[in-house]
Design brief:
Layout lengths: L1 E4 L3 E5 L6 E6 L6 E5 L2 E5 L3 E5 L6 E6 L5 E6 L5 E6 L9 E6 L5 E6 L5 E9 L2 E7 L6 E6 L6 E6 L5 E7 L2 E6 L3 E5 L6 E6 L4 E5 L3
Antiparallel strand pairs: 1-2, 1-20, 2-3, 4-5, 5-6, 6-7, 8-9, 9-10, 10-11, 12-13, 13-14, 14-15, 16-17, 17-18, 18-19
């Protein structure tokens, strides 16, 4: 799996214990990563990025039209990506956004609702889109399901850790990463996270490598 620091260094992270191997410097701000096949894309608060997965370097950067996007995933349709923001829009929650992978332009699909905002990542499991979200009044991150037609988030449960900024699925198992270097295994039915290991990096996202 791939992860990266908020300082924009790209790593390969072991799904067994979270051990890290440095790939290289991304060279610009990045708030999340997503693979579509062998192509690695990223998002920053304002840009849709293409990266070289071997070196970590950004090879393309396009404005997506939003100011706070911090989560990204490849959609089920080719060339489509979903993203979400960190801003609670008048109590309606974060924007859920569809991004055109060719132009990089984002279009608002809807909002999470109930004041929920993106904690930093998405992952698909069995055709369902999951997200790490911030719930008003809770210091911990929660797991939620996302309706990709409306953008509405439905809470599943408290992960039991704060600042869970990464989420990925490998071989049917859900993993999450925290900003204090912890790798977790997530129960998708309850949201509960179990510690697998610690790597000491500020993990700002997580993506399954091809």
């Amino acid at each position: 799996m791939c992860s990266f620091e908020s300082s924009s260094k790209l790593y390969v992270v072991s799904y067994v214990n979270g051990a890290k191997t440095l790939v290289g410097s991304i060279g610009t701000q990045c708030t999340d990563l997503a693979f579509a096949g062998t192509t690695l894309h990223g998002v920053s608060f304002t840009k849709f990025l293409t990266l070289n997965p071997t070196t970590g370097k950004v090879t393309a950067s396009k404005a997506h039209g939003f100011a706070d996007l911090n989560a990204l995933v490849a959609g089920s349709a080719a060339g489509t990506y979903y993203a979400a923001g960190s801003t609670n829009n008048s109590g309606e929650g974060a924007n859920f956004v569809r991004i055109n992978g060719t132009t990089g332009i984002g279009t608002k699909v809807g909002r999470f609702g109930a004041g929920l905002t993106s904690s930093g990542d998405f992952a698909y499991l069995n055709g369902i889109l999951y997200a790490t979200v911030n719930k008003p009044g809770s210091i911990n991150t929660w797991l939620a399901k996302i309706n990709t037609t409306t953008g509405k988030a439905t809470l599943i449960g408290n992960i039991g850790r704060k600042n869970v900024w990464g989420l990925a699925v490998r071989n049917g198992i859900m993993y999450a990463a925290t900003n204090d270097g912890k790798l977790l295994r997530i129960n998708p039915s309850t949201g509960i996270g179990i510690l697998l290991g610690t790597n000491g990096i500020v993990q700002a996202g997580l993506a399954k490598s091809p």
